Here is the input.
Amino acid sequence: MRLRLGWFSTGRDHAAIDLWQVVNEAISDGRLDVEVVFCFSNRAPGESPASDAFFSAVEAADVPLITLSSNTFQPEARAAGAADPATQNDWRLAYDRAVMKKLSEWQVDLIVLAGYMLIVGPELCARYDMINLHPALPGGPTGTWQQVIREVIKSGIESTGAMIHLVTPELDRGPAIGYFSFPVVGDFDDVRAAEAARELPLVLTTLQELANGHLTIRHGRVFADGVELPGGCDLTGQVEEWLKR
Here is the structure.
């Protein structure tokens, strides 16, 4: 049975379109045995030229598009949440519940967060197995890719990378599924270029390993051929091979 995916994206930039198109091309040419059942966005049509361009790519792939604008959802509570964490958590819970209601008719095995710019709350994490890309090795720095690279260079470590991990309420600390590593050489821009070039291959190879059953997710834990992998699966070799292609 093909792996059935849900796709979450804000669609805020061209990178979201690139990832969407690369995955769908890999599905079309048979390299990736998955089906994208729906795409969900927290932006609505007409809200942003960037997200509208992403929506056009989704429609071109003939995948159902579901939207619920986070900008217009309970705007007073969202604005109050900027100064009050408790209000922010209440707003996030209400929004996630509205999202789950919209998605209730769709059955998926896994959800991919692909440039989804909201933190997902505990109920949404509990409802679905969700995966996300984080630009650091398992156990490495948290934060944005800029913060991660600065920390990597500052600490003087010899290698870095990126991982696909399970999404949990603890930001960027869910169990690793697949990762790649590479030596830290050069300055900030060099490290970023090396990491960014491998992000799409990591997404594709991780989805491949999940689709063929080599990697599985059960009850918030990651397994390779039935053996638990607390630190995730090293996919560096597969990522480098994909880069060559």
